[in-house]
Specification:
single chain; alpha+beta; Alpha-Beta Plaits; 2 domains; four-stranded antiparallel β-sheet; 11 helices; about 10% strand; elongated
């Protein structure tokens, strides 16, 4: 109980709580305004819920999509809690359970009928535009949530399990699981709409990988310079980052040198390059992008230098 109260009193908790709430509000808007009117079944639990709701409708039973979403997510949350971890599970409990209510929130506050043209079957008037809008908005929301060890629930839970235990890219995991769900849409949708859904699922995976790589991108910087000690101090004391030193031998002349290697954000990399230029430090420098880091990584903002 004491640990729970301490957690509730931290800025990190409330910041992530706000991020999750806003992220899910955006995801719910994407589902309500772009997915449901066009009856698209993208590879997601929402898409599966639309199929189930449609099958109940064929049997003369009215079941809201939001209700089915909530029920399926409640079941999948057990998997998240057991297989992925308590933090991910707890966060996903919140995000998954508010998706259905948030869909109803948009339905009551700003019904899609107000902005749809008379006789139109989708918000944008074209199923491909609806598909593109939905995928881009949802992928951005998924990326933000994955970055704080949360998810939108449903399919994301399955994708996270595959990502954790099989080490597949998160986008690939979403695409494979989503494609299987899309195939269930043959029960209620014509062949053309199902194919559109499969393409949308594939694009969702690509967009998710792209956004994730961009959000997590770091620079691996390798510098060989006789003034490596100055560079090391700047990285540690000014940028507040760690670095590694390696003894290297030149293959051409056989000279012994020291290489310094560090992982930096884009802003930190720019600051380092400016430092080298302003202090006329020469050396052999290579830099490449890194999109995944395992192990310790300081997520805190750089500390401001004290003015003496």
């Amino acid at each position: 109980m004491k640990e729970l109260l301490q957690t509730l009193g931290t800025w990190k908790f409330w910041k992530e709580f706000i991020i999750m709430t806003v992220g899910m509000l955006i995801a719910a808007a994407a589902v309500y305004y772009f997915l449901m009117p066009s009856n698209l079944v993208i590879g997601s639990i929402t898409g599966l819920s639309m199929v189930i709701s449609g099958l109940f409708g064929l049997a003369g039973i009215t079941v809201k999509v939001s209700v089915v979403v909530t029920v399926i997510n409640a079941i999948l949350l057990i998997l998240a809690w057991v297989l992925i971890g308590h933090e991910f599970g707890a966060k996903t409990v919140y995000t998954a359970l508010i998706l259905g209510p948030f869909i109803e929130f948009w339905e009551k506050v700003f019904p899609v009928e107000r902005i749809m043209e008379p006789g139109a079957t989708s918000l944008m008037g074209d199923v491909w535009f609806d598909l593109l809008c939905f995928v881009l908005i949802l992928s951005a929301s998924q990326t933000i949530l994955f970055n704080i060890n949360a998810s939108t629930g449903g399919l994301d839970i399955l994708a996270k399990i595959v990502n954790k235990y099989l080490h597949f890219d998160i986008g690939t995991s979403v695409s494979v699981a989503g494609a299987l769900i899309c195939c269930t849409a043959f029960a209620i949708n014509p062949f053309r709409i199902v194919v559109v859904g499969l393409i949308g699922t594939w694009i969702n995976g690509l967009a998710l990988d792209y956004f994730t790589a961009g959000l997590n991108r770091r620079k691996r910087v390798c510098i060989i310079s006789s003034r490596y000690e100055e560079i090391r101090k700047y990285i540690i004391e000014d940028l507040q980052r760690g670095c590694s030193l390696y003894s290297v031998t030149g293959g051409y002349n056989g000279h012994q040198n020291t290489e310094i290697q560090a992982l930096l954000t884009q802003d930190e990399f720019a600051s380092l390059m400016n430092y080298l230029k302003e202090n006329d430090i020469h050396g052999f420098i290579t830099a490449g992008n890194v999109s995944e880091i395992y192990g310790d990584w300081n997520q805190k903002k750089r500390k401001k230098k004290k003015i003496s």
